[in-house]
Amino acid sequence: DTAVSQTPKYLVTQMGNDKSIKCEQNLGHDTMYWYKQDSKKFLKIMFSYNNKELIINETVPNRFSPKSPDKAHLNLHINSLELGDSAVYFCASSQDGTRWETQYFGPGTRLLVL
Amino acid sequence: AQSVTQLGSHVSVSEGALVLLRCNYSSSVPPYLFWYVQYPNQGLQLLLKYTSAATLVKGINGFEAEFKKSETSFHLTKPSAHMSDAAEYFCAVTGGNFNKFYFGSGTKLNVKP
Question: Residues A60, A104, B7, B96: is their CA dihedral positive or negative?
Answer without folding.
Answer: positive
